[in-house]
Amino acid sequence: MKEKRKVLQHKWWIWFGGGALLLLLALFLLYYFLFLPHIYLNGSKKETILYPNTYEEQGAYLKNVFGKIEGNITIDGTVNSSKIGNYTITYSYRQGLFHRKVERIVSITDNEAPQLILNGELKQTVCPNKQYVEEGYTATDNYDGDITNSVQVKTQGPNMIYEVEDSSSNKTTAIREITYADTEEPTITLKGSTTTYVLEGATYQEPGYTATDNCDGDITSTVTTSGEVNTNRVGTYTLTYEVTDSSGKTATVKRNVKVISQNESGAGKGVIYLTFDDGPHATYTAQILDILKKYNVKATFFVTKAGPDSLIKRAYDEGHTIGLHTWTHQYQTVYKSVESYFQDLAQISDRVKRITGEESKIIRFPGGSSNTISKKYQVGIMTTLTNEVLNRGYHYFDWNISAGDAGETTDPQVVYRNITKNLSKNRSNVVLCHDIKSWTASALESVIQYGLANGYTFQKITMETPMVRQHVNN
Ligand code: ZN
User: Fold this and answer.
1) Rounded to the nearest whole angstrom, what is the distance from the C-alpha of residue 437 to the centroid of ligand 1?
2) Which of 7, 361, 425, 458 has its CA 20 to 30 A from that of 355?
3) Domain ranges, ordered by start, for the chain
4) What class does CATH assign to 187-260?
């Protein structure tokens, strides 16, 4: 019996101990599942942030089966929004022996493709005999910055392909369309003017030309010329210049060569060419222009640096010819050398061009081409100059009637007589006057009346007027 009791006693302890353990377990389970909170994240467990946006911590909260509860959640880990990558943020909560932990992965990513900018036109035409010359490009990326150095350039047929990829494998492609073709005709540029004049019996000298092509460059040597100038016959001749580039494109230009009469009894017969030198003069040139206007007579003014621009402008606007006389009218300067002569001529030429907008190629030598005063400064200079001006496309005019108004007389009556007594119907009459003299202005009206009454016509000198030239004496 005694033993039996012991067993009983022993069993009680077991029951008691087991029961207590069960109770503890039950309490633990009850606590663990009902009261111990879980961590809940605001936002999601995997956040993707597109660069350059920044990650903002959204936090977390605690909740058990009865609802949200207060408590301290420790947040560990940082996100560098300016650097692409995956970041882990840990949220942990500790309560006595218990520990909860949740992680959030934040990805900073870049899905923006780089920008690729090509210099120059995107569509280009390049000569067939040339290669497209790269004009450059720039590539920038929102994350990587300047990535121009990683641009890959390749050709695809005639086109150029540009590719660039940023560090996140975002790709940008650009294309430059190249057409290999020659779309331009060559250009022929004539030296001298498109209408040139040559004296009857003289030799026509080709002033020359140049030809260029956008693809072939200088192709002057392949220009062909056709047409002929017969300087033994007065008339207009046409020369044709033609050139073809390597793409078969052709350019043609023409030049008219006018062979004009040497013979004074030919063209201009019975014509009076009134010419006025050394002006303009503020008073007398204006008076002369008034008289010319009254009779609708056109004349020629060989101007210098003197007088107001407005009178040159007026003479030009009223239909008269503005010829070039000299800038300085200083013989020692003008005839010192050939260079000096052309320097002086260029100055008066510039003045006329500036005022009228037109370049004059009609000139009169100071003192005329027959002057001997130039011998004092340069022997033989008139022989050189009379040829050289013609080579340079000028026409020079002397005179066959002198009004004598520059020294011989100051009497309008004498001026009138000097002119009218020398007029001839069998030639052209180039009359030398000076519009800086009052007696010339005073004589002019009666000279015109005489001319008109006696069947003469008045004309201005043009590039087609036969030159009247004196004998060269130096
Ligand atoms: Zn003069």
Assistant:
1) 12
2) 458
3) 38-109, 115-180, 187-260, 271-458
4) mainly beta
Please determine, for residue 1, whether its predicted confidence score (pLDDT) is greater than 50.
no
Query: From CA 288, how far away is CA 252, in angstroms rounded?
Result: 46
Q: How confident is the model at residue 414 (pLDDT cuts 50, 70, 90)?
A: very high
* CA atoms lying within 13 Å on the CB side of residue 220: 7
Residue 453: Cβ within 10 Å count: 8
Residue type for position 187? T
Q: How far apart are CA 443 and CA 90, in angstroms?
A: 118
The pLDDT value recorded for residue 277 is 98
The structure tokens listed for 48 are 């993707």
Distance from residue 274's CA to the centre of ligand 1 (Å): 14
Query: What is the distance in A from the centroid of ligand 1 to the CA of 250?
Result: 49
Six token digits for residue 228: 């002929």
Does domain 38-109 bear CATH number 2.60.40.10? yes
What whole-number distance in Å separates Cα of residue 249 and Cα of residue 226? 18
Cα 137 to Cα 159: distance, rounded to the nearest angstrom? 15
Report the separation in Å between the CA atom of 342 and the middle of ligand 1, taken as the mean of its atom positions. Answer: 16
- With H, G, I as helix, E, B as strand and everything else as coil, classify residue 442: helix
Q: How many CB atoms lie within 10 A of CB 327?
A: 22
Give CA separation, 383 vs 63, 196, 345, 414, in Å: 120, 22, 17, 33
Asked if 245 and 449 touch (Cβ cutoff 8 Å), the reply is no
Distance 459 CA to ligand 1 centre (A): 21
Q: Which two tokens stand for residue 55?
A: 């990650």
Distance 266 CA to ligand 1 centre (A): 28
Residue 3 has what pLDDT? 53
User: In the predicted model, what is the mean pLDDT of the chain?
Assistant: 93
Ion ligand 1 — residues with CB under 5 Å? 277-278
Question: What amino acid occupies position 428?
Answer: S
Sheet (strand 46-50) strand order: 46-50, 98-109, 85-95, 74-76
Do the domains at 115-180 and 271-458 have one common CATH topology? no
**115-180: what fold?**
Immunoglobulin-like (2.60.40)
- Per-residue pLDDT reduced to its tens digit, 143-176: 999 999 999 999 999 999 999 999 999 999 999 9
Report the separation in Å between the CA atom of 433 and the middle of ligand 1, taken as the mean of its atom positions: 9
Kindly calculate the radius of gyration of the chain based on its CA atoms and give it in whole angstroms: 52
Q: Strand 362-363 and strand 395-396: pairing?
A: parallel
pLDDT digits (tens, 9 = 90+) for 223-277: 999 999 998 898 899 999 999 999 999 999 999 998 876 554 456 788 999 999 9
The Å distance, Cα 376 to ligand 1 centre, comes to: 18
Do residues 42 and 61 make contact, with C-beta atoms less than 8 angstroms apart?
Answer: yes
